[in-house]
Design brief:
Keywords: Membrane, Transmembrane, Transmembrane helix. This protein has seven helices and two strands, in the order αββαααααα. With about 200 residues, the protein is mainly alpha-helical. Helix 5 packs parallel to helix 6 and helix 6 crosses helix 7.
Length: about 200
């Protein structure tokens, strides 16, 4: 199944990521990635001089910066409203809550080879993309509960639950399969497990 292949691909990526961390001299202490002192020293030496960094900034980057950073208003608002929605509604539907910390990860600012501007930008990008990933997961679980039907045309934005949705226009065992989709979400099963759908009535 597509989900099984996607799961295998993610496992392979995680294994490759772990191997590359070892090659970079990274170890895990209390759930945090830590570099050896020798590696940290080498990273600090690799830091670009701030004067060189500023000199390389294009004028248009400075002009557009306020527009980029103004989107923080949308990110914070989305974060707040999605969290409120989930905490209020998910218990009513019986849908397991999404762990926010699994999606909003802010840690790149701790890298010694980044200057303070780069660290600030990394925090901003991490938060923004994390909020979008968090909101997407909340929305995906909601869709799997309320409307598990595929679109008529190919959709590039498919989330991990989408492949188990019912085909567009397929009425076979419609009510039963809709109930199955809700059960998969409310029972909190691993999203990567194979799904057994209703038997076709030809």
């Amino acid at each position: 199944m597509l989900r099984e292949r996607a799961h295998d691909a993610r496992e392979a990526m995680e294994a490759e990521y772990a191997r590359r961390r070892e090659d970079l001299g990274v170890r895990i202490e209390r759930g945090r990635l830590v570099f050896d002192q020798r590696i940290r020293k080498r990273q600090r030496e690799a830091r670009q001089k701030f004067s060189e960094y500023v000199a390389a900034i294009r004028p248009m980057n400075v002009v557009t910066a306020p527009v980029i950073y103004s989107v923080i208003i949308a990110f914070v608002t989305l974060d707040l409203f999605v969290t409120l929605y989930m905490w209020i509604c998910f218990p009513v539907y019986g849908i397991p809550r999404v762990r926010r910390r699994d999606h909003i990860v802010v840690d790149r600012h701790m890298l010694p080879y980044l200057n303070w501007v780069q660290k600030f930008n990394c925090v901003y990008c991490s938060y923004g993309n994390g909020v979008l990933a968090y909101a997407r997961e909340v929305a995906a679980r909601t869709e799997a509960y309320w409307c598990p039907i595929k679109h008529a045309r190919r959709w590039e934005g498919a989330h991990e639950y989408y492949h188990d949705f019912m085909d567009y226009g397929d009425t076979c065992d419609f009510v039963e399969r809709w109930a199955e989709s809700r059960n998969r979400i409310t029972e909190g099963r691993d999203a990567m497990r194979p799904i057994v759908v209703g038997r076709r009535k030809d």
